[in-house]
């Protein structure tokens, strides 16, 4: 039986990846950091009803000694580093913490593997935010990076450390440059979930308006459930490499919102308010990924449409809010 270690197992992708690996017969170990609210930290794993199937290991990405101990004890075949301070807007408020967790945290995992289990295969959760001020209309593995937030700068460090450990030590270390991907398990502060939760609240009469920042920004949105499969595929290849994972379709936040409002029969213009306080200090205007390499080498393509995903998310938020009322 193969053993996988997932950092960030309590997050959106961690939960879906754990579910996927369990169906593949893996023994799944999930790194969890200590929380004073331990009873809610595994909410996403509970949503998928897999919380009893994960072997919890106690550690933190900024504590190298904890990672060394965990790798020594678990002896994983595959390590997926999904843990991060992952919210771009918060990275301006906590730039150094973001650097420590999102940047150095990845280097800590790589070091722990190099010292204790160099044969383990490693996946790094890189991000399309690394393209930032885009240098090409459609971004591929060859497009130069231009990060535009402390988050993206930290991710770029982690990305290059992954490449460097592959080239320096021959480690099977791969990096997935994932474009935005969402689901009913997306954190509530991220724009798609903010929209689907907001629309559900307005529909149920719990709220009257939805406040957003820059709705002209364009993003390439896919579904987390499909994107985690690409992570696994990367680690099944003979050779480690870097891959863009995207849908190849880009849509404005405005049009994504319209999909959600019209799904429940509401007039978006009557409820949507723009709040300049919610704009980023430096914006990423457009992200538009070219997934051709992933299709050719991994046989992976995105299948779930933006409309299908937003409908699923609105339905999930309606159900959550109705349950909370009963
Ligand atoms: N979703 C996207 O569109 C997207 C796109 C590209 C890249 N990524 C990257 O992909 C990864 C997964 O994304 P996601 O959407 O699943 O993120 P997420 O829901 O925000 O999950 C982040 C995870 O990191 C954990 N974490 C935070 N600080 C930690 C620390 N110091 N030590 C250990 N764990 C820590 C969190 O644990 P707690 O539950 O305890 O907070 C949580 O499990 C992240 O690295 C993200 O930056 C995401």
TrEMBL record:
Catalytic activities: GDP-alpha-D-mannose = GDP-4-dehydro-alpha-D-rhamnose + H2O
Gene3D superfamilies reported for this sequence: NAD(P)-binding Rossmann-like Domain, UDP-galactose 4-epimerase, domain 1
Species in which this protein is naturally found: Rhodopseudomonas telluris
Protein family (similarity comment): Belongs to the NAD(P)-dependent epimerase/dehydratase family. GDP-mannose 4,6-dehydratase subfamily.
GO molecular function annotation: GDP-mannose 4,6-dehydratase activity
Cofactor(s) the record lists: NADP(+)
Stored Pfam families: GDP_Man_Dehyd
Protein name per UniProt: GDP-mannose 4,6-dehydratase
E.C. designation(s): 4.2.1.47
